[in-house]
Structure formats: structure tokens, C-alpha cells
Write a structure and sequence with these properties.
3-stranded parallel β-sheet; 9% strand; mainly alpha
Length: 92
């Protein structure tokens, strides 16, 4: 990630793309459809807490954003695995 991308912040309810690219993500809700983005990724659940939003934004702007990792199987090869599973299923 180059310097211009490091300061991007995503505010959304589905932060899978942000996690994949290592971009900080703040979810303004109490849950997310992809909990792995919180457990392993760069997503932080803010809920409706303005103090937490302020704190997390400050961390990001000061270079202390949550560091995440890309979850297993988020390798861009899902379609290959699906095709293989279908072939095996149809061959049985």
C-alpha cells in the first residue's frame, strides 16, 4: 500500500474489501454480516458510541489503525474450489 492509500478510512457495514486491502474500516452498527472482518481483519465495530468513534478515528489518523490479516480462503480462488467441488459431486 502506498502512502496515499494508508490514510483511507471506510465507513460501511460490509468491510470485506477494506480488509482485503488493509484499509481501516469502522462499522457504525452493533454487528456485521462478516464477523471475520472484525475478528481477523481491519474492521472495528463502533455501534452507536460517539466516544468510540472519536477514539478509533484518532487512532487511525495518528497511524495506530487496527492491523488485520486476510482470512483463510480469501485468496481469490473461490470459483476454482467451487468448480472442483461440483466436479467431485457430479462424478459421485
Amino acid at each position: 500500500m502506498d502512502d496515499s492509500e494508508q490514510n483511507l478510512i471506510t465507513l460501511c457495514s460490509a468491510c470485506h474489501a477494506s480488509v482485503h486491502h488493509g484499509v481501516p474500516c469502522l462499522t457504525l452498527g452493533s454487528n456485521t454480516e462478516r464477523p471475520v472482518t472484525v475478528d481477523m481483519g481491519t474492521n472495528v465495530l463502533i455501534g452507536q458510541d460517539p466516544g468510540l468513534l472519536d477514539s478509533e478515528l484518532t487512532k487511525i489518523l495518528e497511524g495506530g489503525a487496527k492491523k488485520g490479516s486476510i482470512p483463510p480462503l480469501w485468496d481469490g480462488r473461490a470459483s476454482e474450489r467451487i468448480v472442483q467441488a461440483l466436479r467431485e459431486y457430479l462424478a459421485a
